[in-house]
């Protein structure tokens, strides 16, 4: 049964091959000073930088460059971005890149006019902004996180060995607009493309594996998962298949723009464990999730057996005839494992740079959330991590 909820998503999306044509219209809504946020240079190689800069110039904007946003943006980089925004009285934060750039732009947005230390306030104390925020716009080049249409911002603190995501409660932290051109993702290396695909899949799982009620969100999730599995197989064979890449892009947005969480409790423990692995290894986000997922799901399966049976039947089309629930559920997870291997995902944390000596620390760094089928104790997390080595 659905509980009480409100639903609001103010991000305006422009989707398709011609989506960038809408940037000028959006820029007209904001002041002259634009902080152009991007990563390590992929947008310079594939020409997206030139296109965006030309539009900014044509529209009379002053451009303040904020380059070098790393995958898993750090707290030090956040301080740097806040300084650029303050020094130049920036009116709009324009992120051109993947989830790291979008997340970072949101973190800068809530920090520019904030007197407290943003790491303390937003990531250790999980407070909400009490200051004016800056508008954020995104031109997405990497698909997976859903950051283009949500209020999440993940920041890593290497010194404290913590990677923490804050999903801000106020919808005004979401990007004001996002440009989604599937062709902008064609130049992604295969490992990033598949990491993004698994990130999408896992976002859906995190919201699906909870509750025992009959809930519209779960039916939507099953459809999203089936479509994603189908399109991923095409994209891995032919990365320039526009239909597949556009379906993947659109699925990513719906997987984490708050819709499929409505009326549900949610799990998010794969992300919590994966983020702790990320804090220790700085590994690619989607790969950290892939590496811990199966040990986690196999561990919690008995506590949510009915849902795992449904997952096997509805998502993986496992033939249930003559089998008991446990057999069906296990076959579903095996089918998922085969698909993950077919994509070429990293299936263990050792390959990501983790080792047995790190397990105690990673366990400690894992935030335990209560929404899934089993609230994990620390020794259970350590066991799941051991299984993931
Ligand atoms: O830095 P550049 O040179 O641009 O290269 C990037 C980066 O190395 C490259 N790339 C991006 N677009 C490209 C491209 N290379 C070639 N062609 C293109 N078109 O891809 C690499 C990864 O980019 P990144 O933005 O780091 O990836 P992703 O989109 O997966 O973002 C990861 C971050 O988002 C957080 C993660 O924890 C991580 O910090 N997340 C944010 C969430 C949210 N806001 O809700 C939820 C997620 O669960 C996730 O935690
Ligand atoms: Zn994720």
What does this structure look like?
The structure is a single chain. With 389 residues, the chain is of the alpha/beta class. It has two domains: 12-185, Rossmann fold (3-Layer(aba) Sandwich); 194-388, Dehydroquinate synthase-like - alpha domain (Dehydroquinate synthase-like, alpha domain), CATH 1.20.1090. It has helices at 23-27, 42-45, 48-58, 75-87, 99-111, 118-124, 190-208, 216-237, 242-255, 269-281, 285-300, 305-314, 325-343, 359-365, 378-388; strands at 12-15, 33-38, 62-66, 92-97, 136-140, 152-157, 162-167, 177-180. The strands form two sheets. It has a six-stranded parallel sheet, sandwiched between helices. Strands 6-7 form a two-stranded antiparallel ribbon. Helix 10 (269-281) packs across helix 14 (359-365). The radius of gyration is 20 Å and the shape is globular. The relative contact order is 0.11. Bound molecules: 5,6-dihydroxy-NADP (NZQ) and zinc ion (ZN). Zinc ion binds at residues 145, 199, 203, 271, 285.
Q: Per CATH, which architecture of the largest domain? A: Up-down Bundle
Main pleated-sheet profile? 6 strands, parallel
Query: What gap, in angstroms, lies between the N and C termini?
Result: 39 Å
**Helix/strand/pairing category:** alpha/beta
What ligand species are in this complex? 5,6-dihydroxy-NADP, zinc ion
Radius of gyration: 20 Å
Low-confidence stretches: none
Task: Identify the CATH class of the largest domain.
Answer: Mainly Alpha
Secondary structure tally: strands: 8
Summed up, the helix count is 15
Give the strand line-up of the largest sheet: 1-8-5-4-2-3
Order of helices and strands: EHEHHEHEHHEEEEHHHHHHHHH
Task: Kindly estimate the percentage of residues that lie in beta strands according to DSSP.
Answer: 5-15%
Query: What overall geometry do the principal axes of the alpha carbons give?
Result: globular
Give the number of domains. 2
Mean pLDDT, all residues: 97
CATH homologous superfamily grouping of the largest domain: Dehydroquinate synthase-like - alpha domain
Helix proportion? 40-55%
């Amino acid at each position: 049964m659905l509980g009480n909820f409100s639903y609001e998503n103010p991000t305006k999306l422009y989707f398709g091959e011609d989506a960038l044509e809408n940037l000028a219209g959006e820029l007209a809504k904001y002041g002259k000073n634009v902080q152009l946020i991007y990563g390590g240079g992929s947008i310079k190689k594939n020409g997206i930088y030139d296109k965006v800069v030309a539009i900014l110039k044509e529209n009379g904007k002053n451009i303040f460059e904020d380059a070098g946003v790393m995958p898993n943006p750090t707290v030090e980089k956040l301080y740097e971005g806040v300084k650029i925004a303050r020094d130049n009285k920036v009116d709009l934060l324009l992120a051109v890149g993947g989830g790291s750039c979008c997340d970072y732009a949101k973190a800068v947005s809530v920090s520019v006019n904030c007197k407290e230390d943003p790491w303390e306030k937003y990531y250790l104390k999980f407070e909400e902004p009490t200051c004016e925020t800056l508008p954020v716009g995104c031109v997405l080049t990497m698909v997976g996180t859903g950051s283009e249409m949500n209020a999440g911002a993940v920041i890593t603190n290497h010194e404290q060995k913590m990677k923490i995501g804050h999903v801000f409660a106020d919808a005004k932290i979401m990007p004001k607009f996002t440009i989604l051109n599937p062709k902008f993702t064609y130049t992604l290396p295969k490992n990033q493309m598949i990491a993004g695909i698994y990130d999408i899949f896992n976002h859906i799982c995190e919201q699906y594996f909870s509750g025992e009620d009959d809930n519209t969100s779960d039916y939507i999730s099953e459809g999203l998962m089936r479509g994603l599995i189908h399109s991923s197989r095409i994209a891995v064979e032919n990365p320039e298949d526009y239909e597949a890449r556009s379906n993947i892009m659109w699925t990513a947005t719906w997987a984490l723009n708050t819709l499929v969480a409505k009326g549900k409790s949610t799990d998010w423990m794969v992300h919590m464990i994966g983020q702790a692995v990320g804090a220790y290894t700085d590994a690619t986000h989607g790969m950290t999730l892939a590496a811990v997922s199966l040990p986690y799901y196999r561990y919690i399966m008995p506590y949510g057996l009915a849902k795992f049976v449904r997952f096997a039947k509805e998502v993986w089309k496992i033939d249930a005839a003559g089998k008991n629930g446990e057999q069906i559920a296990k076959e579903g997870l095996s089918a998922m494992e085969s698909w993950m291997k077919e994509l070429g995902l990293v299936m263990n944390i050792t390959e990501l740079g983790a080792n047995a000596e790190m397990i105690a620390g990673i366990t400690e760094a894992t935030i335990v959330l209560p929404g899934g089928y089993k609230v994990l104790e620390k020794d259970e997390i350590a066991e799941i991590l051991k299984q993931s080595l």
